[in-house]
Amino acid sequence: MPRSRSLPKHWTDDDEVTYERRVAEERERMALEIVELFEAAIPEQVVRIQMSDWAEAHRILPSNLTPLPGPFRWRVTPYMREIADCLSEDSPVRKVAVRKASQIAYNAALVENWIGYTIDVAPGSMMFVGSDAGMAETTVELRIDNMIETSGIAHKIAAQTAHLKRTGRRSGDTKSRKDFPGGFLMAIGPRSGGKLRSFPIRYLIFDEIEAYPQNIGGGAMGKTADEGDPIRLAEQRTVAFERTRKILYGSTPLIAAGSRIDPLFARGDQRYYYVPCKHCGHMQVLHWRIEREDGKPFYPLKYEVDEMGRLIRDSVHYECQACGGHWTNADKSRFLQRGEWRPTAEPMEEGFRSYQISALYSPVGMRSWQSICQEWIDCREGRDVTKLRAFVNLTLGESFEERGEAPEHSLIMARKEGYQSEQLLVDDNGLITEIVAAERPDRALFCTIGADIQADRIECEIVAWGVDAESWSLGYHVLPGDTSQASACWQNLRTLITSWHSGMPVMKALIDSGYNAPMVYRFCSEFTGALPSKGDDKVGSSKRIFQRGKIDSAPIELVRLETGHLKLELYSFLRIGTVDGRPPTELLRGYCHFPLDYAEAYYRQLTSEDRRREVDRRGRSKMIWHLPSGRRNEALDVRVYAMGALYVFAGDVCDFLELDQIEWGVFWGHAETQMAKTLDLSVAGG
């Protein structure tokens, strides 16, 4: 055996073996001592800070972004604490879905706190996917940068020095990217397919996912390949961190059909926040509406109005579902602190929690119950579907059911009443000689007409209107004739527009100009009372659902109607009554009356279309009105135009009264007064 150069020459082989053994033993002893030193320096249990504790220790809320500035405290929004701790590093929860209203401190309590906690305590790769790229960058610039600065962690955000020296730009501290020790934050939009696929991500935030496209890519002429669902693309980036990843899905819901947040909420354990009654202690969820066992709705949030219809603020209170005790908005400070989240379902996926929260829980100092009741009053007075949808989405945090599916025609036909429709007598030339009037409804005030132009006929309906849009169909007429020339059908339509029906004048008529527009323009320009109209689903606003515009070829105005809105409203009116099982005492607001002699074909046409969701190749989702093959829809079209004529007339009256928008209460009061005068004059003159 060759000897080591460092060993004495006189050592035997046994001496060398003994030496090597002793050296090994000494090395083992020293290694054990080092391990003991390290173990002594490490605490027996690693204490990991919770996200909720970090927030209270570091966050300062700025006055420019919140009505409650100052140190962050969970006692203000205690319902957010459990959700926040689901995102803590040691929580076994891997996915969290929050279906939410506005004004419940979601961004400050969850999004901002989680990003700050990640930068400071649990670093890793993080991606924030906003509703679009611009909104994602705005969120970083206005909210995240402010949070980083006021939380004392700005020193952890580092620009890449080499890049800064070379280009003069900071690549590690921008509106779309923040680099920090152990990780980074990237802010993108849902259409950034390349970025959604490119980076392994441990932490993922989906913000306002209802605005995401169903699919990205698939450009015009097929130049861009379909890339798929942006949520699925981003989720795939977390697969490498399957055991430690965290995903937050958050959104205010929009339309129920095609909702993204609703299926995610259903996939989790569907938690609701239970709070105790201050009188009896009964734990309950705050609801706007509750369906009782007897089928009658119960509204726990109560209010009263004065004789002018104005909210009496002191009357607003919440009624306990158990004892009937009253709570005020100020009581939130007490019962919110004592609330708790309770799951109501088994999750479809392990480690998946889902939460629902409405603005009824908004803390004192933010959204009050009084403002919620006022918003509801405004929705009801204006009969505005757009406002109602905003109330359901933003205040209740629920998806809006667009009742675009057609009501069952047989149920509406079964409500035919005991009056006959008006009849037309014509001479040998087909011209109207007499209108045999229908019986006048007691509550009706005036009429409008809607007309649809076809090649060989004009179809029109005379609709009488009463307060709160109660309506009576007085007559549905098919006027035969060649509409491309001045035939009898045009003369008969003029006779109907200029005549009184059941003792009431026609205040406005809208003629569909989608077919043979030049003839429609010529007809309408020859006398007052009729306007050409065209359906357009893009012109609506919360104030009016129509717009007037000039026509270059005629000295009259064209009325563009948001016909989709009117169809939704009509279908909601058609459901009032026996379709919804309501008692007769509630059959006034928007209720539609029909005569005894209308055939089944009329009701089939009136309910011929339904509303469906359509997704184009670029993933853009939109709702369309679908007419099944072989079905006719003239009755639906002319009723929509008659409703549009009501809106135009109401707009004219409110303009005359110098109002900024249609105020239905004022309009109906004015109509009652003026029509009474008009009828008195007609009786005196007749």
Number of discrete domains: 3
Estimate what percentage of residues fall within beta strands.
15-25%
Which blocks of ≥5 consecutive residues have pLDDT under 50? 219-224, 539-543, 579-585, 682-686
- CATH T-level fold name of the largest domain: Rossmann fold
**Span between N and C termini?**
140 Å
What portion of residues is helical? Answer: 25-40%
Biggest beta sheet attributes: 10 strands, mixed
Number of discrete helical segments:
19
Outline type: elongated
Annotated CATH homologous superfamily of the largest domain: P-loop containing nucleotide triphosphate hydrolases
The first-level CATH class name of the largest domain: Alpha Beta
The Rg value, from CA coordinates, equals: 35 Å
What is the secondary structure topology, with strand pairs?
Layout: H1 13-41, H2 51-58, E1 60-61, E2 70-71, H3 81-86, E3 95-100, H4 106-120, E4 125-129, H5 133-150, H6 161-167, E5 177-180, E6 183-188, H7 193-198, E7 203-207, H8 230-236, E8 246-251, H9 261-267, E9 271-276, E10 283-285, E11 290-291, E12 297-298, E13 301-305, E14 311-319, E15 326-327, H10 332-335, E16 340-343, E17 352-357, H11 369-382, H12 385-395, H13 409-413, E18 423-426, E19 432-436, E20 446-453, E21 457-465, E22 471-480, H14 488-498, E23 506-512, H15 517-525, E24 530-535, E25 546-551, E26 554-561, H16 563-574, E27 592-593, H17 600-606, E28 610-615, E29 621-626, H18 634-656, H19 664-685
Parallel strand pairs: 3-8, 3-17, 4-6, 4-7, 7-8, 9-17, 20-23, 22-27, 23-24, 24-26
Antiparallel strand pairs: 1-2, 5-6, 9-10, 9-16, 11-12, 13-14, 14-15, 18-19, 20-21, 21-22, 25-26, 28-29
Helix pairs in contact: 2-4, 4-5, 11-12, 16-18, 17-18
